[in-house]
Amino acid sequence: MIPVITVDGPSGTGKGTLTALLGERLGWHCLDSGALYRVLGLAADRAGVDLEDAEGLAALAAGLELRFVERRVLLAGEDVSDLIRTEQAGMAASRAAAHGPVRTALLEWQRRMAREPGLVADGRDMGTVVFPQAPLKVFLDASPEVRAERRYKQLKEKGLDASLPDLIVDIRERDQRDRNRAVAPLRPATDAVTLDSTAMSIQEVLDRVLEEVRRVF
Ligand code: C5P
């Protein structure tokens, strides 16, 4: 079986950075599953599909022409990497992701990303739904304030507009929806290693996870 490491948790905990670093260290593929839902939000906006229209969104999801090329996200050949990184896109993704049919439509696509020599997959339900057999599951958490600050820095570095108080409100709203939705709610798998990164640097988190990698693989 192809080895998989899952990294789940709310936004701003450092999941994406940890996943990229692990992928580099191990020479494994990476899956940023949040990008799928973000692209779907963008595609829905362009196609005029309402974010409450579960069946319309699922049909759109099933036909998404999506590719990841060297950390860039291509939708039907167009580089949409920057367009999908705004807070607005995150919120649209979270609304689209709450529908069961949408998640089902994207399930096999995500599973096909598990290829030799291995995969590090980040998201909300990687360990609970998409790769329940993964031998190593990490759940990263951190306080909403610290996560909002990290997000603020990221957005500023990209030259995007951001307000810290607005980000705290957005993060709480997104958490609330992701944790309380009926399908694939955000929660740690029962066999996940949970880490609180509030007071940890990314290097400390990476070192801690690499210890687990050595133990498990
Ligand atoms: O991780 P990211 O912030 O890019 O994800 C955007 C949104 O996509 C999340 O708030 C969540 O609602 C949704 N998502 C999900 N399942 C995943 C990854 C992301 O529901 N595996």
From TrEMBL:
Q: Where does ATP bind?
A: G9, P10, S11, G12, T13, G14, K15, G16, T17
> Where does the record locate the signal sequence feature?
none
Q: Which Pfam families match?
A: Cytidylate_kin
The record lists the catalysed reaction(s) as: CMP + ATP = CDP + ADP; dCMP + ATP = dCDP + ADP
Coiled-coil-forming residues are none
Ranges for domain Cytidylate kinase: 5-214
Keyword Ribonucleoprotein attached: no
Keyword Transferase part of the UniProt annotation: yes
Class of this enzyme: transferase
The text of the family note is: Belongs to the cytidylate kinase family. Type 1 subfamily.
Protein name per UniProt: Cytidylate kinase
Q: What is the lineage of its organism?
A: Bacteria, Pseudomonadati, Pseudomonadota, Gammaproteobacteria, Chromatiales
Task: Identify the gene encoding this protein.
Answer: cmk
